Amino acid sequence: MKRLVTIVLALVFVAMAAGSTTFFLQTKAEYDQRLETERLTAERLRIAETRLREQEEMLQRLRTDPTYVELIIRRRLGYAKPNELVFRFEN
């Protein structure tokens, strides 16, 4: 009888250990996934902040630098001054 109780307790202990291990491994996998998601999100945020900074600098230059405004208009819209020849080359 004593031996049966010992075996049952050992089996319960093994089952609890297996359950705990399974739970731990699932939790660890979820944690690793969350860390990867956080890393990717932080990278996207860094890229977005860099782009925002660049756009803010461009906006500031557009507001304050007439030479820059002229350059942008010429490049993007193809404008030219009167009596000015513009050469366009295909890439």
TrEMBL record:
InterPro entries, per the entry: FtsL/DivIC (IPR007060)
Signal peptide limits: 1-17
Keywords on record: Signal
Top-level taxon: Bacteria
Name of this chain's protein: Septum formation initiator family protein
